[in-house]
Amino acid sequence: MKVISYNLNKHKAAHELEELVEAHAADVLCLQEAVSDDLPTQIAGLRLAEATVRNRLGLAVYHRENTYTAVEVRTLALKKSLHDRVLKPAEERMLGVRMRDIDHGREFLVASFHAAPLTALNSLRRKQIQAALAELSTLGPGLPILMVGDYNYPVFKESLSQRIRDAGYELTLSDARTYTRYKFFRGHYDFATSVGVTIESITTLPQGSSDHLPILIDAELSPRRSGATA
User: What is the CATH number of the domain that holds 83?
Assistant: First the structure.
């Protein structure tokens, strides 16, 4: 399974999506900072499973319709930062989709996630990550989970990784930094948390019109598990 996650930077990079999906034969596409009303229902063979509707800059998940079926979707409004309360860019910061592999019948959960911006504390982002993973576990108890997106967490990732492991999940970074706009804040912003999923690699793709670089996750479902809690 190949998954692309891309923060479109206020929808500026939306015109790149068709070529991006085709070039990397993506099976799933997870978007952040998309204008939902301007998203097509299909992109290079991927069908729109769901897009948030209460966000000024929203989330979306696409899937290859001849490989996966979207069984159920769920959005989650997470604890707000001061930035969210004043500017209201995003009401819903997690969009999860329960999918079924058409050929093999296995189900799994994939989610697009966008944490609070850098004006918020890391402690708030950790709570958002924890809440999002907990919500996904109720959408499909015991199912593999892959949550990708913009975590806005450039520093102290070692501490975050340990907290993620303590909760039963794994945090995986890409092979190169994913954000380049401000020199001081450059680093790995876009990555994955998972359980029940073997991540072979996460590759940072070339930069386009966004200040975030897209990432390509090459993963497969692990043997069936009993479940985990955040």
Answer: 3.60.10.10
